[in-house]
Amino acid sequence: MVKYVFITGGVLSGLGKGVVTASIGKLFQLRGYKVDVIKCDPYLNVDPGTLNPLEHGEVFVCEYVWRFEPVKGYAFRIAEIDQDFGTYERFLDINMHPSNNITSGQVYLSVILKERIGEYLGRTIQVIPHITNEIKRRIRAVAERSRPDVLLIEIGGTCGDIEAMPFLEAIRQMRLEEPRGNTALVHVTLVPYLETVGQLKTKPTQHSVKTLQSMGLQPDVIVGRAPMELPDDVKEKISLFCNVPKEAVISDPNLEVVYELPLIFERQGLGDYLCKILNLPPRKPDPVKFKQWIDLVERFKSPTEYVRIAMPGKYCMITDSYISINEALKHAAAYCGVKVKIDLLETEAFEEDPGLLDEKLSKVDGILLTPGFGSRGVEGMIMAAEYAIEHKVPFLGICFGCQLLFVAFCRMVLGLKGANSTEVNPSTPHPVVDLLPEQKRIEQKGGTMRLGGHLVVIRKGTRLYEAYGREKVIERFRHRYHIMPDYARKAEEHGLIISAQDESGRIINAIELASHGWIVGVQFHPEFKSRPNRPSPPYLAFIREVVKYKRLREKQAKH
Ligand code: GLN
Fold it and tell me: Are residues 215 and 261 in the same domain?
């Protein structure tokens, strides 16, 4: 029988509910229970694929592309899902299924299409029961497909949001329908620290729990997000006012390393407590796996040396836009015994003041050129790639960053003035990056890119091969454009190497510079498969080069 743990949020969004959810999952996983995770997103988009990263943060890409067929004859491809799934994959080391991301858009679309084909003939379609039934059906379909012992269900947004209401109502119904001891509700709230009085304040938590209670939901556990651990008297107060035992009030303090949160929760007895209320046989965490996780956290915490990486890009205003890349860099750095300092550089600034380029990039030990879409800030990104080629700075280009490395090479080395991607300049004299042939017919935007996991065939003797140590790997893609093979072959005569292709040899998957430092671009997104205990090979190779480059520069500075 599947146990359900619901995770809701209160007071405000952005509390790190995804990390809380993943950490709770880890507590069960360490006890040998099979875990799966659902995220319900209240927005009306069918998937987040068309959202601007500046509004919503990164879009996560699954290995598997799901054919979402709400009714026969209407199908949509879904592989782009909420960034929280990246957190789940990194903590739990499982590949998530796209149908685990349930959006209001999918739910309403299904119900309305079913109405059109006559599935509810004669009836008025309403939020309760039709929308709530569809939500419950989707949740149970995941339970049915993956058969976990514990299914965690995170509800996006904050209780009290109009959009989240149907999801919260569906939870209320599920808690009633399931046998006693089969569900638990964890509510994550903010406990702000008020500097002027030197106190942690519980009132916002009290209000948010009242809002939940007014919807018929009583939390079993309250996780209090605060700058520090909650002292006893604060836990007592939350317990008294929010109607939960004191042992069920859990601290979620600021942490330098997010992967430490499961350990903090375990120390407070959360794993045992949840097992108790879910009537699961009491188990202790597997000592070997627990120790491995402790060691992993230590590896992230202990380095004292920093390497500095520039990330020129266009979505630099919010830190969440490149979260999987940031994490992949951290995973690799921890393996090399260093920490990373990331400089997010808005490249429009380089276009306005080219002098900034040297000022910003001469300080760093490596450059990672970011994924992206559209034309804003792109000249500045190309300038950054040219800088890397000219100064032999270790360089990793991801997707758009790889395409723009190729543009830079064509301009600098092949002398193709005005070379560009047709995405950026449709009338460029040298379209060195252009739409994939099958993309030329596609007009609709949602879910229509080349998506998901694809086989990458790596050429022996290249830097990329050295990184992977294998000829064939599966990596995840999300693109419409690609490097034009004719131009790439011309470039091969001038020191560029095509280091990976797809199985058919039609799509260039990676390039690198032959005799020129470590300058590598990949058309795929290796960051999505990076794990804290298993860093992504190209990221690991990149950070190794970055460390070498830093040492070299330190030596040169001494002389
Ligand atoms: N805009 C580019 C393309 O569609 C790159 C996409 C990306 O960086 N994910 O091919």
Answer: yes
Supply the angle between the helices 132-146 and 165-177 in degrees, to the nearest 10: 60
* 372 C-beta closer than 6 A to ligand 1: yes
Active site members: 399, 525, 527
518 C-beta closer than 6 A to ligand 1: no
DSSP H helical ranges for 78-129 = 84-92, 104-116
pLDDT in tens, 282-321: 899 999 999 999 999 999 999 999 999 999 998 766 677 8
Same domain? For 505 and 547 the reply is yes
Do 50 and 184 share a domain, yes or no?
A: yes
**Distance in Å, CA 372 to ligand 1 centroid:** 6
Rg (CA), the chain: 25
Same domain, 59 and 166: yes
Q: Is 479 in the pocket of ligand 1 (CB under 6 A)?
A: yes
Same domain, 358 and 394: yes
In a shared domain, residues 290 and 336: no
Bond preceding residue 129 cis, omega within 30 of 0: yes
Distance 148 CA to ligand 1 centre (A): 35
Q: How far is the CA of 524 from the centre of ligand 1 (A)?
A: 9
Which tens digits make up the pLDDT trace of 223-235? Answer: 999 999 999 999 9
Which range of residues forms the domain containing residue 335?
304-558
Both tokens of 57, joined, read: 């943060």
- Which one, of 49, 162, 130, lies nearest residue 452 by Cα? 49
